Amino acid sequence: MTQHTSRLCKCYLTKKESDGALHQITLPPQSPNLNSVEMVWDEVDRRVKEKQPTSPQHLWELLQEGWKSIPAWRWRAQGGQPEKYHRILHCFLDRKDSCYSIHQMAQMGVGEGKSVGEWYGPNTVAQVLKKLALFDDWNSLAVYVSMDNTVVIEDIKKQCRQASSASRLRPRPCGWQEPFTSRETPEQACSHTDGHRATTCPHSQSHSDWRPLLLVIPLRMGINHINPVYIQALKECFKMPQSCGVLGGKPNLAYYFIGFVGEELIYLDPHTTQSAVEAGSGVDDQSYHCLRSPRRMKITNLDPSVALGFFCKSEDDFDSWCNLVQQEIQMKRNLRMFELVENHPPHWPPFVPPTKPEVQTTGAEFIESTDKLFESEEEFEILNV
């Protein structure tokens, strides 16, 4: 999405002219059928180029017209949503039994030394998500959080080739043929009719030797302010097709950055109080979609503590990301804001892929991290430039 956003603005707008137009463009919410964002931007880009806009206002009108011409990308509250949509939504509901709820994040944060209600920096959020993913038996996502500004290819491939908990005949929230109801939990949905929990599930078997990878790279790009030497490298990361955004913001103010235009970052601001949502077929889930226009801020105003996110669906996708990093960042000494190495550093403790603890309860007491002393911290700064 970032590449297309930047290309459109570079082709048709000057920085001065764009100030009054780009921020008015409202990105559509995620498609119920989960279409690729890149596919949508490709289609919009094609339609805009056919009309050749002559002014910022004309471009804005064409972009609005482009969104309306792609009905599959429009979310409608009254329309029936697919099963996968409701499964994803259920994972983020404000309920203690939802895997990624605020309750679970707060509890798991205690294991990271954060009290309930205390501010979570990007690194803390990444560590919490890594631990919570171990209890997500619905999908086989592998979450890898780099440490010491170093991404180890050998460790990632070892983790992604490891069988997930779903493929080891563990119960998982499968078999939901209808949208979830507020009275049905994932564990209940996986039960037999005689009231006993299922021990196997046909959807639990792994169909690939590679688990989809969510790669998170926590970084500290300065002391009090972002070091300008890292700005170009940050832009290069946004251009990568595997990029899924950046966690960051300002002190005590979190944003989700999705791209850049010139010397400004494009971000989504989640700070809107919403009523709690219960799962169901007729639920009004508008608050789970982007209803506010993206905003912009100068890159130099970004807090230096960030976490880069990348998603690699396949091993080839990961190999492609590694090649991009080596070409666009590693080969340019002044852009190296993190390291990408082939083998596990010998002075590090042995890498053991994380697994779900064998416990029968939930909460932050699940995991006592064995590598806590080696995890990235919020206070470090990279000094290899």
Written account of the structure:
- The protein is of the alpha+beta class and 385 residues long.
- It folds into 2 domains: 1-75, no CATH class; 119-167 and 209-374, no CATH class.
- The chain has 11 helices and 9 strands.
- The strands form 2 sheets. It has a 7-stranded mixed sheet with strand order 1-3-8-4-5-6-7, with helices on both faces. A two-stranded parallel ribbon has the order 2-9.
- Strand 4 and strand 5 form a beta hairpin.
- Helix 6 crosses helix 7.
- It is globular and about 60 Å long.
- Residues 1-35, 167-207 and 359-385 have low confidence and may be disordered.
- This is Cysteine protease.
- It is an enzyme of class 3 (hydrolase).
- InterPro entries: Papain-like_cys_pep_sf, Peptidase_C54, Peptidase_C54_cat, RNaseH_sf.
- Its EC number is 3.4.22.-.
- It catalyses: [protein]-C-terminal L-amino acid-glycyl-phosphatidylethanolamide + H2O = [protein]-C-terminal L-amino acid-glycine + a 1,2-diacyl-sn-glycero-3-phosphoethanolamine.
Compose a concise summary of this entry:
It contains eleven helices and nine strands. It is an alpha+beta fold and 385 residues long. A seven-stranded mixed beta sheet has the order 1-3-8-4-5-6-7, sandwiched between helices. A two-stranded parallel sheet has the order 2-9.
